[in-house]
Amino acid sequence: MYFKIDREQCIACGLCQLCAKQLISYDEEGIASIIKDQNLGKKDYQADENTLLTTAAKRCPVGAIQHSNKPFSDL
Length: 75
Fold this sequence. Notes:
Blueprint: E1 2-5, H1 15-20, E2 24-26, E3 32-34, H2 47-59, E4 65-68
Antiparallel strand pairs: 1-4, 2-3
């Protein structure tokens, strides 16, 4: 599964990092992004990382964490 964060939608609440702290970082304004592929949505996450990011996406109060079965560059 592929993930990326819509940085325009992110409200910097911090819930996503509680779920996936090793996969999500914040800029100086607290806006989240996914670390491993610079938030481009091109890395196919497997197993444990997929579970962590899916949980973070479900808990995001504004739905800023997007996920897809295809890379976002292909959509």
